[in-house]
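Progress report, Aim 2. The chain analyzed during this reporting quarter is listed below.
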Amino acid sequence: MPRRSRSASQLALAIAVLSLVAAAPAAAAGQHGPPPVPLRIATYNIHAGAGADNVFDLDRQAAALRALHADVIGLQEVDVHWGTRSQNLDVARELADRLGMRVSFAPIYSLDPVTAGEPRREFGVAVLSRYPIRSAVNHEITRLSTQDPNPVPAPAPGFGEVTLKVRGVPVQVFVTHLDYRADPSVRVAQVADTRRIMTAERSAVRGARQVLLGDFNAAPGAAELGPLWGELRDAGPADGGTYPAGAPVQRIDYVAVGAGIDVRSTSIPDEPTASDHRPVVAEVAVRR
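Predicted structure tokens for the chain:
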């Protein structure tokens, strides 16, 4: 009888140990959550469809974009029926169709057509995405218009936002083109606007991850960009330039990510001809 009791106790102990071992992976999975979602993100100033040689060539540009193998691409200097320089095409739609991607265009300028009945002449930024675009907003930030001979800083559209659902995770992608002038005062205002808008949008969607793409027209160490890096991480490489494309001397193009997104790798592809800028690409992991 005692021998049987010891055997039963040993069996019960073994079962308990096996149960704990089996439960450990499940507990670990519950603690760390599901694996993050890989995402390949790029930004590219496409120079209104023209290459570094100032020749409009959408075939060349589509090939350069395709070679990025990106899931999401932010575009700057995008023409939509703007004029003869881009053959009056909807460049955003043309590139999206050639790449088999969705598109959202956010005009900075939307002008009356030269001839009544034709489409409006528009210029701005765009997002291409392999994921469905759930919503899109064209926000206003401070701008100094290039269409006004005597411009003054004023709110104007062209800060695009799309919300994507990336395998169940809401990802807010913003695309921007900051002021190009040597005086940084307008960029200072634009950075403040950007932070305000992104904070409000993040608060509106629980669990949202954020990405900011664009041509900032300033180097990473520029003082006016400093406030951005308190909330975002510059996912660009530590060295290497994006402008001018043929022989870059500085990086002014950015992929920046917010909380909940880990940067795995980043690069500046060797693309010297398709635009006057080079693209930036980042491999990231979106935490769920």
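The CA atoms of residues 188 and 224 lie 5 Å apart. The chain has two domains: 1-33, 36-286. These observations will guide the mutagenesis work planned for the next reporting period.
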